[in-house]
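Q: what does this look like with flavin-adenine dinucleotide bound?
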Amino acid sequence: MNIREEIGCVNAGVLIFSVNDVAMNPDVLIIGGGSAGVAAALAAARQGAKTLLVERHGYLGGAGTASLVHSFCGLYDLPPTADAPPCVANPGIPQELERELLTQGIGHGPLRMGKVDVLMHQPQRLALFYDQWCRKEPNLQVLLHTEVVGCALDEKRVAEMTLQCRGTTWKVRPRTLVDASGDAVVAAFANHPWDQTPEHELQRPAYIVGLGDVDSAVLSGDGPLKIAGCLVRAIQEQKLPAEAAGAHFRASAALNEAFLTVDLPGDSFDATDARSLTEIEMLGREVTFAIMEHLKANLEGFSQARITTLPVRAGIRESRRWIGEVILTEDDILESRSDAHAVANATWPMELRETARGPRLLYPKEPKACGIPLGALRARDLKNVFMAGRCISSTHRAQASTRVMGTALATGQAAGIAAASHEQDTARLAQQVCAILRQLEPAK
Ligand SMILES: Cc1cc2nc3c(=O)[nH]c(=O)nc-3n(C[C@H](O)[C@H](O)[C@H](O)COP(=O)(O)OP(=O)(O)OC[C@H]3O[C@@H](n4cnc5c(N)ncnc54)[C@H](O)[C@@H]3O)c2cc1C
């Protein structure tokens, strides 16, 4: 693009970026700064591509910061035996993140929970960590408060993307892009086929708040049973809404701090509808505040407790999913399928949260990873579009495994490396990505 065109692109008539600024002229555009987007951006930039990462909120981390999700699942292999030590499932960025979070005291664990290992983390400190991690990459520019609001197509490619920040819009023409929005927003803008689960089967949304001054003792031993009993009685006596039955408390690493998670009804919820999103945010606040008022008045250990942190947004487990060259299925996960095109390991069981009865975990037959093929990270009909994280090309049930943040880091890394390449053929590109992955910090 020349300067005249650039000026024409800025609605306000003010040129806010210089011609060679990556913000105006990226090779690779990453949409969304969650686990998947950060990994994609770092990976593309490290391959030498001028990379622009845009995030509509004021910090990076996606659900892992903005929705107060506080543990990395899918970061480790499924342990082959009960006493096997935790082993990071993917090389490179997931391995680096685990090491850094533990070294800097932002991560705690890993903790074995039944048959899986998880790494707990502090969401606020994770946001700062992501800032610092991204700022170290000379080829990467991050723009916060910047949203993708449209695109233009040229045959089988996305030719142009429209970005917006507070009333100023401008257009960029990246060579490739990675949709890490969680909501497959580019599929919607481009009118490319996507999939969406009917409301009654959707993985339910949830609302997480941070708590302070909870006596840590009430969250251990028989404490959780007492809390559940207190909440059930209050629901029966109609002092609390039925949604309070889905409440779950977890101590954070800091003394007397905890998180409260409440699963919310999914039956009439549409994660891409403004009315529906508004209702779920308001319901989340209503229910969590009511629970805390009730426990404060009725249960020892909660008398000083209070909500200290609200999420930027309610937690969305599932919305749109891309249709890619390959669609990852439930059988792929359960049979731990993998082939030469596999570019990321998925190790989390399928965690189904479709009903009010709580999670149901479906494990693969053998404790082995499913290899996600590059075709599940590449749009079926748009050759320069890759995707990563929650919205990759998978069935509803396979997404119940691949959506977790450890796997999102891995699909992000693979999509970022692929997007930085000039190779067009998916099979050859998968070989290239695998060769690069083999040279990265090995998973330990
Ligand atoms: C209640 C709940 C509990 C969970 N618990 C766990 C858990 O314990 N462990 C675990 O590993 N996973 C958990 N998950 C799943 C996990 O948090 C998400 O699936 C994961 O964070 C997905 O990562 P992502 O990068 O694909 O998407 P996100 O983290 O959702 O990030 C997407 C980002 O894209 C941005 N974005 C969207 N559209 C645009 C646009 N048009 N322009 C610019 N930016 C845009 C968003 O603001 C967001 O920051 C949980 C999820 C929920 C909802």
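The chain is about 30% helix and 25% strand. Residues 274-298 form the longest helix (25 residues).
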